[in-house]
Design goal:
The complex is a heterodimer of chains A (324) and B (280). Chain A has 324 residues and is mainly alpha-helical. Chain A has one domain: MetI-like (MetI-like fold, Orthogonal Bundle), CATH 1.10.3720. Helix content of chain A is 72%, strand content 1%. Chain A contains 14 helices and two strands; from the N terminus they run ααββαααααααααααα. The two termini of chain A are 17 Å apart. Classes of the chains: A mainly alpha (324), B mainly alpha (280). At the A-B interface, α1, α2, α4, α5 and α6 of A face α1, α2, α5, α6 and α7 of B.
Chain lengths: 324, 280
Amino acid sequence: MDTTTTTAITATAAAAKRRPLKARDLAPYLFVSPFFLLFAIFGLFPLLFSIWLSVHEWDPAEGLQAMHFVGLENFRFILTDPWFHRAVGNTAWFALATALPQHLVALPLAAFIHEKIRRGRDLVVGAYFVPYITSSVAIALIFTTLLSRDYGAVNALLVELTRVPLLGSFMPGHPIDWLGDAHYAKPTVAFVVFWRYLGWNTVLYLSALQAISPDLNEAATLDGAGAVRRFLYVTVPLLRPMIYFAVTLSIIGSLQLFEEPFILVDIEQGVSQSVMTLAIFMYRLAFGEGDFGAASAVSWLVFLMIVVLTWLNARLFGREGRGE
Amino acid sequence: MTPRPTRIATTRPWLAWLVVALGALLLIAPFYFTFVFATRPRTEIYSSPPPLWFGLSARSNLALLLERLPYLRNLGMSLYVAAMTTALNLLLCSLAGYAFAVYEFRGKKALFALVLGSMMLPAFLNMIPSFMVLDFLGWLDQPRGLYAPAAASALGIFMMRQYIASAIPRDLIDAARMDGCGEFRVFRSIVLPLLGPALGTLGLITFITSWNNFVAPLVVMHSVENYTVPLALRSMQVPNNTEWGALMMGSAIAMLPLLIAYFFSARRLVAGLTSGAVKS
């Protein structure tokens, strides 16, 4: 705490002793109250209420009177449900298949842009960031079109490539049903997620790089270290706090993955099973089957997983790695 | 910061540019196709090879879109919800940010920690119970069911606090008080007019987030007339018989205003969005 705030505190404390309560003492509470009021109604209360819900059996159609206490029955039901296991597996798969490539590409990309692009950097960075500020529905719609089995642009391109000698033999001979075939739907959805958040992670790493002094990198260059070695032994260690932060965000985001698989893959189709994440599973339980109790149990299990994984992540990076 | 040219940076800048620009092109290609397909009829979109340049069917696609969806109403709903969310956030976040930046009061530290902590709560955890709260209030299928829960964001309060703490001289506030300004008057007449840049960034972020939001409207809005744009577009996608040209037109209309706003403010917006990460 700096000296001005300390004097301010002592000044206020002294003043408070001398005079009765005035507008100035109440004003800050009044100013912050709207946030806390809204948070209480739409944040804190729902949170506590969902604990209550998770130990009750309840059909919303019958009103609040129809709530029956069932103890941990909802949790038992969920934990033994094969669909839940499937959703956990899918979510874990997506978390790895989207987050890992995102950071493995974003990190060197940010270092590359930082080192080599001076002029027009804002333009390039701006372009990488566009998917992040676009509606997930608009993104899903265009990808559905581009990836459609018959006449989609991606398949059309692949057909063209089969005519190229050598490269052509690696191309599939038949059009691929990217979003309708269970083998392809998962990687395709993962790719769209990767595509959407790559720019975000790149920008995070770039902003951290800008805060790092260039001296170390220059010293390493003078010592004859090549670009790859400088990246691995200078840049990455210096970026550890930001990597920790970005990975934490990825964990929290991945475990709640909902929009991309939900919109890209038709829920009526059997293939949607292969992209059913925990969030979709919970949504269907609540709004499809009306089982709010079991759905709340799922949401708390997901929260628990987030807590455990972020804790493990913090352990993995250690105090120093977190930038503390 | 002036760039210190290293050996590598000066050798082949155009090559580096090419690599990064190609990546950027791949990233924005889908957006280009959205606009191209918006001007093409369905039959042309699904022809081999697919169209790479604009066509002549923008008008008929628009007509078809307006025939299938109450799209103007959906646009109005999105605009109304986003405008209300933004206006409320600008007022409430700057007020709270001002309090945290300027005043000393009992419990300030704990309250601010609570603001930051609320950012960590997964939104998803709240989906079902907040649906029930809105149901209880009778706010389902109403715009206020969307803007009221989002009226004061923790990130906004954090951003405004940082900005006010660094950009508003304390002497100015004290001088205004000496002149007999009431506490709210100081905020409204002295502080608020100086918050322009921060309010601009926060406003843009809030508007974009609200405009693109999918999950909240999915849970809250039930009738097609009250759908926001993303929900309306999704409802037009039916198995086997989707009017892709019209749908792409709707998608392009929804994207265009944001892309234009983004083009003029990309730098500030990117800095604002990542500020929480960089400063923490």
